[in-house]
Every structure is written in C-alpha cells, then in structure tokens.
Amino acid sequence: MIYERSELTVMYRFSIFSLMLILFFTINVQSAYAYLDPGSGSILFQALIGALAGVAITLKIYWYKIKERLIRKKQ
Amino acid sequence: MPNHKIKSSFRDPSGFLFTFEGSLYRQINKSYQNEFDKMIDSGLYQKLVEKELLIPHEEVNVESSQPKKCYKTIKPKLIDFISYPYEWSFNQLKDAALTTLEIQKISMDYGLTLKDCSAYNVQFLNGKPIFIDTLSFEIYQEGQFWKPYRQFCQHFLSPLALMNHKDIRLSQLLKIYIDGIPLDLTSKLLPAKTKTMFSLLTHIHAHSKKQKDYEGKQVDVKSRKLSKNSFVGVFESLHSAIKKQNISLEKTEWGNYYSDTNYSEVAMNDKKTMILNLVEKIKPKNVWDIGGNVGIFSRISSDKEISTVCFDIDPVAIEKNYLECKEKNEKYLLPLLMDLTNPSPDIGWQNMERDSFLTRGPADLVFALALVHHLAISNNVPFELISEFFSRNCRDLIIEFVPKIDTQVKRLLSSREDVFLEYDQKHFEKEFERSFIIIERKEIKGSKRIIYHMQNKKMTKK
User: Is B226 on the interface with A (CB under 8 A)?
Assistant: First the structure.
C-alpha cells in the first residue's frame, strides 16, 4: 500500500497525539515526603513531556525512514 | 559616594545590580563563584557574547556595599532603553523566547543550563534581543529537572499563544502578572481548538492540570530523575511550540494612516525636511517618537544613528515597525507599545521592580507629531496637561499643532459635540509657554498644520 505525503503526516500526528493521550491518563506520580511549592506539578510534568519528546524524536527518525522508503517505492 | 542597589535584582542570591557614580555594576556573590568561573572558563561566556546573545561585561574593582559576600564585580554594557514584555510586539516577544531557548541549547554544550527564564532577562540592543542576566546560569547535573520550565511557559508561551489564538491585546496581562500569565488562566482563555494542538495541549492545558493536581501536596521530587534526553526534550519541545505561534496582521484604525491622511506629497516631504533640519540642529543623544505609528519620522533620527524609541498605542503598527527594523537590520530604532493616556506604571515589589514610562525619561528630544488632536479631542486632555506631560519627559520638543479646519480633526469631531472651544493655536501656545520656550514655529507647506520646536524651561542643555 502506498501512501501520499499528506496522509503520512496525518498518520504521524495522530500516532503522537494518541500516545500523548495514553501517557497523560496513565502516568501518575506518587506523593510522599517533603513539602513543595505549587511549582511541583511543573517539575513532575517534565517527566511526561521529556518522555514524550524523547519518543517523538525517535518516532520522527523512524517515520522519516519509512516515508523515504515508501516514496522511493512509489517513484 | 555610596552605591545604590537596583530594586529589581533583590530575588537572586547569586548577586545584585547597583549604581555607583552614575554607572551600573553587578556584584557576584561568593555563593555563585563556581558557576561564574565555569561559565567563563568553559568558554560559554565568550561564545554567547560572540553570537550577540549575552550582554558583554568587564571585571572591575568597585567598593562593595556587601564586601563579605562579594566574589567579583562586573560592569555590563549599558542598554539604551530598558523595555518590558508588555511593551513588546508579538514578534519581539517571540524573538526574545527563541533567544532564551538558543542560549539554553548552547549552554548545554558547555555543561551549563539556565536556572531561570524570566522575559525580563531579555532586552533589545542594536535591534536584537539580548540576554542581560549574567547570573542566570547553573552547572548542569545529570538527572536534574529543567527548573525554568513553568516560568518559560508563563512568560513566553502563554502570552504568545493568547495573542495568536485569542487576541493580540492579551499581552497586556503581563502587566498584571509580573511572573508571567498563570497557566490555568491561559488554559481557560484559549479557545477549545488549542486542545487539539499537541504543543498547547501539553505545555499549557495538561501542564496547568498537573499544577492543579499537585498544588499544596507533599511530593518527593528530589528522588526523581530526568534523563539528559528528556531534559533536552523539554526545551526542544518548547522551541517547536514557540515556532508554531504566528500572527497575521489585521487592518487597524491606523494601519494605513499614512496613505489615508490628507497629506500631499509636498506636505509630507516638507514635514520630513523640517524634522531632519531640527534634529541636525538639536543634536540629541536620544529621541522618543511618541505616537510614532510605523516609525516614518522615527527613522529620520535613527537613520542618523541616534538611539530612537517609537511608541504607539496600536499593536499592529508596532508589529509592522519591528518587522521592518528586522528586515532592514536597523540598530538604532526600538518600537514599543504604549498607551499615552495610561502609560506603563511602576510595578512589582514596592512598585520598584519595573519602571514606569516617565521614570525611564527624560529624553533629549521628543517628537509629538500629529498627536495633540488625538489627546485633546479624543481623550479630552486639556492643553495645560498635555504641556505638563511633555515637560516631564523631554528637554527639546518637536510638536505639531493640527488646527480645527484640518480634515483629521473634523473626522474626530464628526461623531461628537464640539466642546473644545479653546482648541486653537492661541490657547495651544499660551499653555505650552508655561513650561516651554518656543524656539521656532513653521507651517507645513500645503497644509494648515504647524511644527514647533520648543525647549523645556526646567532643563538646561546637557
């Protein structure tokens, strides 16, 4: 099956979005110990953002490779 | 002479700013010695200064008011005019955000990272944003979180997203919230469609939700680690979020002012020549063009390498002006947003952290061109008070009087009762002569408008 470039972009965005939603609803940080200011949510949220960004970068690399192959195949 | 601590730098335990004999200095405390040495020895300082991203400084020996804490004293290069994020256009704020992220990215190559990302750490020098807080760096420790994450979102991403997706005027929220726009407020104000945008869904909406979830809770944050990849991922992701914020310029009341006016080509050229001749005669060190729109007349002084600030109430005019400055690489012109009927106040702790419009003056020379009728008729400000206002912010004044017979004044009066019985040249001169000496008056060719050069009685020539 050969995809158009625009379809690939939509699929890529959709996969990132779905992954983000799954992570957002599943990752939960445990509470314990020391008192923190209201900024603690921001600090802890970075674990999620950082992980997402890491996954996104990896996906992007693989996605470009797949895309390249599909486009080459089409040509 | 004692040195005076600058009130805006009290939060930072690493050092403080002070003035001594009219010059500005920054003390570096012993507690910041390791970080400061690492920044210099690693070559980061040199790299950032070469790229014109960080303000250059020289190390000096000046008597400290807190000698026990003092490690070193530096004298940073001076900024011509200190401006604030609520006075910047959309693209000025965006460029300041991208500058901050570029500094963060480069710092990582030298084993350092930013410890705060306040928009107030950025100023405009030679037409470009530059980081002015030499003490905002810390040594990167593997596993640490990016401390300025929340501040960056509040100071940069929140206002840019609101200006982009809601209304360009929402940058004014920064005047109320000195530490940036709270994310829960941004999340409420942004339209629902922004929840389908990955960068805003994460950095604003979900981030705000997480903040709420953990507000006041006891959380062990020290035992948690963030890998270096994730650490870099956080600000890389913000970089892409900022890049995605863009605005299209809509037509505003003054957007096409210069093509809509009754100025003929002859009148426009005559006015420009008159201003140029006066600037050459007055020889100011700096100029404020008040109500300068897209900066047509500001460029008469800035093109002569005179530091010029162009203030206007119209955010689109300021935006156009800034984009033109960028395109032409203009170094002497700074466009800023300012409502003269309610100019920037002194704000922050004890009203002393950020200076008001008037506190940052006076200027050597002020242009008030095609402005008086807007103040007197649209805003009901009597000539007496307009004169008083200018007497507080300039030494020399080039001011244009627009008579009632002018079509622009007729336009302003068309929708209201004419209660301005004293709006005439005689009363204008009488009120201005209370504070100023009229040096010269000249009618613009092909119009009934008059250009005055006045000198402030209270200020002698510097």
Answer: yes
CA–centroid distance for B448 within its chain:
35
Tell me whether residue A60 is in a domain.
yes
Q: Which amino acid is at B57?
A: H
Cβ separation A35–B145 shorter than 8 A: no
> Among all residues of chain B, which has the CA nearest to that of A36?
B218
Is A14 part of the contact surface with chain B (CB cutoff 8 Å)? no
A58 is a domain residue: yes
Q: Which of B199, B210, B238 to mutate to probe the A interface, most A CBs <10 Å?
A: B210
Query: Between the CA of residue A62 and those of A18, A53, A58, A75, what are the distances in Å?
Result: 17, 14, 6, 20
Place of tokens 């920064």: B174
Q: Does B142 touch chain A (CB under 8 A)?
A: no
CA nearest to B144 within chain A: A43
From first to last of the 462 residues of chain B, give the pLDDT tens digit: 457 778 777 788 899 999 988 899 999 999 999 999 999 999 999 999 999 999 999 999 988 888 899 999 999 999 999 999 999 999 999 999 999 999 999 999 999 999 999 999 999 999 999 999 999 999 999 999 999 999 999 999 999 999 999 999 999 999 999 999 999 999 999 999 999 999 999 999 999 999 998 887 777 777 888 999 899 999 999 999 999 999 987 655 545 555 556 678 899 999 999 999 999 999 999 999 999 999 999 999 999 999 999 999 999 999 999 999 999 999 999 999 999 999 999 999 999 999 999 999 999 999 999 999 999 998 999 999 999 999 999 999 999 999 998 988 888 888 888 878 889 999 999 999 999 999 999 999 989 999 999 999 998 654
Residue A18 lies in a domain: yes
- Strand order in B57-60's β-sheet? B4-5, B15-20, B23-29, B70-76, B57-60
Cβ neighbors of B226 (< 8 A, separation 6 or more) are A46, A47, A50, B143, B144, B145, B146, B234
Q: The domain containing residue A54 runs over which residues?
A: 9-25+40-70
Q: Which CATH class is domain B257-456?
A: alpha beta
- Total number of domains in chain A: 1
> Sign of dihedral through CA atoms B210, B216, B220, B226?
positive
State the amino acid at position A5 in one-letter form: R
The verdict on residue A34 lying in a domain is no
Contact B111, B141 (CB under 8 A): no
Integer Rg of chain B from CA: 24
Contacts of B232 in chain A (CB under 8 A): 53
